[in-house]
Design a protein that fits this description.
The complex is a heterotrimer of chains A (273), B (266) and C (328). Chain A is an all-alpha fold and 273 residues long. Chain A is built from twelve helices and no strands. Helix content of chain C is 34%, strand content 31%. The chains are: A mainly alpha (273), B mainly alpha (266), C alpha/beta (328).
Chain lengths: 273, 266, 328
C-alpha cells in the first residue's frame, strides 16, 4: 500500500514538473520546432550510416537492410521513449557536486521523479519519431509471415525495451551517486546499448552476445524477440519461449534498478557525498 | 620570445584543467572502448561482405576504428573543447575582458585548446587505442617514419579541428546563443569526420565530396598517413591548406566581431 | 525536556568517512565526527541563532533536521516526526532556505516555481493566493515574478527563495546562511521580514549564520557549535560571561597623563588625553568608573560592549589551547 502511494506520488510529481517544462518550452514555438527537427537529424545520422553501408553491400552479418532496419527501429524507438522519460538523469552527478541535489530532498516528492522530470524536453520526441518511421518502413519491407504472436510482439518489444533502457538510466543515476564525475560511464550502456542493438547479433562475438543476453540483458529489447519474428536463429541457442520473456526481463531490470537507486540514495543520506 | 612563453603557459593551463578530472577521464576511456568494440564488430562484418572496401583490408578498418576513438575527444569531434567556454564568454559578454588582454584572441584560445587536445589524447585516447591493438588485429606500421608522419598529421588535424570550432564559436556574436550551432557542429563533426564510417567507404559522388571537405583532415588523413594509404606530403598539404584557410577566416570573423563589440560597447 | 519542544535533539551524532589522497594511488580513510553528541530543544515560536565557524557542523545539523542526512546516532524529532524516516511527510511542515544554492527552478521564471510549489505541496487554492500576495508584497517581488531565476541578483533570489519556503505555511523555517553575500539593504530587508514572520505567524526559526549581526538583531537565543560540539546554548547576553570577554571603558581626561592604574582594568591604548581600558565583562562598570573619577580628572567616558565575534573568537581560542595542551 505504501509502495503504491509512493508510486502515485512519484507519477504526480513527475507530471507536475514535466508539465511546467513543457509549458515553458512552448512559449517559443519556432525554437521548439527547430530543436525537434535538429534532434531528428542528429539521431538519424546512425541510420544514414547503415544506409551507406548497405549502399556497398546487400547484407550485414547475413541480415538484409529491411531486417537491420527492423532492429534499428525497435532499438531507437524504445531508447527514445526511455530518453524522453529519464534522459535528464545524466546531470545528477553535477547536481551532487554543486549541492543542488539537497534541495530535491527537502521537497515532498520522490527524488527519482524530481530528477527524471527535470528539464523534461519534448524535443526528444525527435528520436522517437525517427525510430518509429524506420520501424514503419521495416514492418512493410521485411519478408515475414505475420502470425498473431509475431504481431503482438512488436508493441511488446517497444514497451519492454523502453522499460529496460529506463532501468539502465536509473541504474546509471544510482552509479553517479557513488562516482559523481563518472557520469559518462552510463553513456556506454545507454547510447552504446542502443547503437549495439541496431546491428544484427550475428555481427558480434559470441561472448559479447552472451554478456548482453545474460548479464546486462539488453538483448531482450529487440535481438531475442526480433530473431523469432524474423525467423532467424539467435547466435547462442535459446529456447523459443525466451522470445516472449521481454516483459519479465524488463520487470526484473526495473526492480533491480529501483533497488540500486534506493541503496544509492540511502548511502548519500548517510555519507552526505 | 616573451609572447611564445605566454601561449605555452596558456596551453599548459588547458592541459592541467582537463587533467584534474580523473574520474571523468576514466569514464571517457571506458565509453570510448565500449564504442570501439561495437564499431569494430560492425566494420568486420561489413569488410567481411565486401573485402577491400575503400581500399582498406579488415585490419586497416579495425585500426581506423581505434584511431577514431582515440581522436574522438582529442579533436572534440562533436564539440566540447575550448569553443564551449568561448561561446559562454561571448554570450555573457565576458569576452570584452579578453579583448583587452595584451594577447592575440585566436592564438590565446588555440593555445588553450591545444593543451586540452594533448591531454585528451594522452589521458583518454591512448588507452582505448592500446586496448584495440591488444585484442584485435590491427595494421600498425613498424617503421618509425610512419608514426612520426602520423604525429605531424595529428598536429595539423588539431589545428583544423580548432579552426572549425573557433568559427562556430564566433558565430555566437551574431546568433547570441550557441544551441543551434552546437547541434550543427555535432552533426557535421560526427558525420563528415568519418566517425560513423571511414570516408573512403562513402559511395560515389557523395564520397568524392566528403573527402575534400575540411573534416576529412581530422580522422581520415591521420589514419591514411599512419597506414601508408596516402602520400604523407599530399596529406599534410591538404590539412595545412584547410588550416590556413579556416584560421584566416577565423581572423576575419574575429575582427568583424571585435568591431561589433567596440561599436556596441560590449 | 520541555513539553512544548518542537525540535528535539538528544545525543545526535553524524560521522563521515573521509577518504583523503595521500599519494598517487594511496588513500587514507579516516572518520570525521561532523556532529558530536548534540542535544537541544527548540520551543514552538522561538527564533534561534545557530553559529560557528566554517566546518563546525552547522550545515550538517540542518541537513539532519530536514531529513537530507540520516544521523549516525542519537534521537531527533521535528514536530514529533523522525526526519530521516518520514522525509516527505516532514517536508510539508518545514521550510528550508539554503543561502548558497536556490531551491527555485534556475531556468524558469520565478512565478513558475511558485505555481509548481502550489501543486507539489498541495496548498489549497485560496491559501496559496493569499500567501503569495502577502509574500510578494512584503518581499517586494512584484516586478520579479516573470524573470527567470538565473537572471535575479543574489538579494532578489534570496527573497524569492524565502517566499518559496513560506508558501505552504511551514511551522518551522530553517535558514542556512540567509544573508551571505547580500548587500546592506538586502540584509536589512530580509531581517525585517523574518522578524515579522516570526511575530505574526509564530513560525519557529532556526538560523545558521556567519554574520553575527543576524543573530544580534533577530535571535533571543543563540547556540554556538564548534568541531561538532555544542559550546554554548543560552541568551545572547550570557555569551559574554562564558567567553570571559572584556568590555572596554573609554575615558577622556583633562590632559595627557600616564596610563591609569585601576586593576583589574588595564590600559590597552593611549591617544593624547584619551585612554582605553579593558576590564572583565563580569565586573561592574560603575565601581570602576567611580574609582577612576576619584583619582583622575575625568571629562567624559563611555562603555563599549564586546562584539560577539570577538567573544566567540576567544572561546574558540581557549578551546584550541585546551586541545593543544591535551595533545602535548
Amino acid at each position: 500500500m505504501a509502495e503504491r502511494n509512493a508510486l502515485l506520488d512519484g507519477l504526480r510529481a513527475y507530471r507536475l514538473i514535466a508539465g511546467m517544462w513543457v509549458r515553458s518550452s512552448m512559449t517559443y514555438r519556432t525554437s521548439f520546432v527547430v530543436t525537434v527537427f535538429g534532434n531528428l537529424l542528429v539521431t538519424g545520422l546512425d541510420f544514414v550510416a547503415i544506409l551507406l553501408m548497405f549502399s556497398q553491400v546487400d547484407s550485414l552479418g547475413g541480415w538484409s537492410l529491411a531486417e537491420v532496419a527492423f532492429l534499428y527501429g525497435l532499438s531507437v524507438t524504445a531508447f527514445g521513449i526511455a530518453d524522453l522519460v529519464l534522459g535528464s538523469m545524466d546531470v545528477l552527478g553535477a547536481r551532487m557536486r554543486d549541492g543542488s541535489f539537497d534541495t530535491l530532498l527537502v521537497r515532498p516528492a520522490p527524488v527519482l521523479a524530481q530528477v527524471g522530470a527535470d528539464h523534461f524536453a519534448l524535443r526528444r520526441l525527435g528520436r522517437i519519431t525517427q525510430g518509429a518511421v524506420v520501424l514503419g518502413y521495416a514492418l512493410v519491407a521485411v519478408d515475414v509471415d505475420w502470425s498473431a504472436p509475431k504481431v503482438v510482439l512488436v508493441p511488446v518489444m517497444v514497451v519492454s525495451g523502453a522499460a529496460i533502457f529506463s532501468a539502465v538510466f536509473v541504474a546509471g543515476a544510482a552509479f553517479q551517486i557513488f562516482a559523481q564525475d563518472a557520469a559518462e560511464v552510463q553513456n556506454a550502456f545507454t547510447y552504446g546499448g542502443t547503437t549495439l542493438l541496431q546491428y544484427p547479433p550475428t555481427v558480434f562475438g559470441k561472448d559479447l552476445v552472451r554478456g548482453v543476453t545474460f548479464m546486462l540483458p539488453l538483448a531482450f529489447v529487440n535481438w531475442v524477440p526480433a530473431a523469432y519474428v524474423l525467423g532467424r536463429p539467435y547466435p547462442i541457442g535459446l529456447p523459443e519461449w525466451t522470445a516472449f520473456a521481454s516483459p519479465l526481463v524488463a520487470a526484473v531490470c526495473c526492480a533491480l534498478a529501483g533497488l540500486a537507486w534506493r541503496t544509492g540514495l540511502r548511502s548519500y543520506r548517510s555519507t552526505g557525498s | 620570445m616573451g609572447s611564445g612563453r605566454l601561449y605555452l603557459a596558456v596551453a599548459v593551463g588547458g592541459f592541467r584543467r582537463y587533467a584534474t578530472y580523473r574520474a571523468a577521464t576514466a569514464a571517457g576511456v571506458f565509453t570510448n572502448t565500449v564504442f570501439g568494440v561495437i564499431l569494430v564488430y560492425t566494420y568486420l562484418a561489413l569488410w567481411d561482405e565486401k573485402p577491400h572496401l575503400g581500399g582498406y583490408d579488415q585490419a586497416q578498418a579495425v585500426t581506423y576504428v581505434w584511431l577514431g576513438q582515440c581522436l574522438y575527444a582529442t579533436l572534440a569531434i562533436q564539440g566540447g573543447g575550448a569553443e564551449k567556454d568561448l561561446m559562454e564568454r561571448i554570450r555573457t559578454g565576458e569576452i570584452a575582458v579578453d579583448l583587452y588582454r595584451p594577447a592575440d584572441l585566436q592564438l590565446w584560445w588555440l593555445a588553450g585548446d591545444m593543451g586540452r587536445a594533448l591531454f585528451q589524447m594522452l589521458g583518454r585516447g591512448v588507452i582505448p587505442f592500446a586496448f584495440g591493438a591488444l585484442f584485435f588485429p590491427m595494421a600498425l606500421p613498424t617503421e618509425f617514419t610512419a608514426w612520426a608522419a602520423c604525429l605531424v598529421a595529428l598536429l595539423l588535424a588539431m589545428l583544423v579541428s580548432f579552426a572549425i570550432r573557433y568559427l562556430a564559436a564566433l558565430s555566437v556574436f551574431w546568433l547570441l546563443d550557441g544551441m543551434g550551432v552546437n547541434q550543427v557542429m555535432m552533426i557535421t563533426g560526427i558525420f563528415f569526420s568519418g566517425m560513423v564510417l571511414p570516408l573512403n567507404a562513402f559511395p560515389g559522388v557523395f564520397g568524392d565530396i566528403v573527402r575534400v571537405l575540411p573534416w576529412a583532415a581530422q580522422i581520415q588523413m591521420p589514419a591514411d598517413v599512419l597506414m601508408g594509404e596516402t602520400d604523407p606530403l599530399a596529406a599534410f598539404a591538404f590539412q595545412a591548406a584547410w588550416a590556413v584557410v579556416l584560421l584566416a577566416a577565423g581572423r576575419l570573423l574575429q575582427s568583424a566581431a571585435t568591431r561589433r563589440v567596440v561599436v556596441q560597447g560590449g | 525536556m520541555q513539553d512544548d519542544a518542537f525540535i528535539e535533539l538528544d545525543g545526535v551524532e553524524k560521522v563521515f568517512d573521509v577518504r583523503k589522497k595521500t599519494g598517487f594511488l594511496k588513500r587514507e580513510r579516516r572518520q570525521v565526527r561532523a556532529v558530536d553528541s548534540i542535544s537541544f530543544t527548540v520551543a514552538r515560536g522561538e527564533m534561534v541563532g545557530y553559529i560557528g565557524p566554517n566546518g563546525a557542523g552547522k550545515s550538517t545539523t540542518i541537513k539532519m533536521l530536514t531529513g537530507i542526512l540520516t544521523p549516525s546516532a542519537g534521537r531527533l524529532r521535528v514536530a514529533g516526526i523522525d526526519p530521516s524516516r518520514e522525509r516527505k511527510r516532514l517536508a510539508h511542515r518545514i521550510g528550508v532556505v539554503f543561502g548558497q544554492r536556490t531551491t527555485l527552478w534556475w531556468d524558469l521564471p520565478l512565478i513558475d516555481s511558485y505555481k509548481l510549489m502550489h501543486r507539489m505541496y498541495r496548498i489549497p487554492d485560496g491559501r496559496y493566493r493569499e500567501n503569495l500576495e502577502r509574500l510578494v508584497e512584503l518581499l517586494d517581488l512584484g516586478p520579479l515574478l516573470d524573470v527567470p531565476v538565473r537572471q535575479l541578483s543574489l538579494g532578489q533570489r534570496m527573497r524569492g527563495d524565502i517566499a518559496a519556503a513560506l508558501l505552504h505555511d511551514p511551522e518551522v523555517l530553517y535558514l542556512d546562511e540567509p544573508t551571505i553575500g547580500l548587500d546592506v539593504i538586502s540584509k536589512a530587508k530580509v531581517r525585517e521580514f523574518l522578524r515579522e514572520v516570526n511575530a505574526e505567524r509564530g513560525t519557529t526559526v532556526l538560523l545558521t549564520t556567519h554574520d553575527l549581526q543576524d543573530v544580534e538583531q533577530l535571535c533571543s537565543r543563540v547556540m554556538v557549535i564548534d568541531h561538532g560540539r555544542l559550546m554554548y546554548d543560552g541568551p545572547l547576553a550570557g555569551l559574554h560571561e562564558v567567553g570571559e570577554s572584556e568590555r572596554t571603558l573609554v575615558v577622556d581626561l583633562e590632559r595627557e597623563l600616564p596610563p591609569i592604574e585601576a586593576a583589574p582594568a588595564r590600559v590597552v591604548k593611549v591617544e593624547g588625553p584619551r585612554q582605553w581600558l579593558a576590564f572583565p565583562a563580569g565586573e561592574s562598570a560603575a565601581v570602576l568608573v567611580a574609582r577612576i573619577a576619584a583619582e583622575y580628572p575625568l571629562v567624559d567616558l563611555s562603555v563599549r560592549e564586546p562584539d560577539i565575534e570577538a567573544v566567540i573568537a576567544k572561546m574558540y581560542g581557549e578551546q584550541a589551547e585546551k586541545a593543544q595542551r591535551a595533545v602535548s
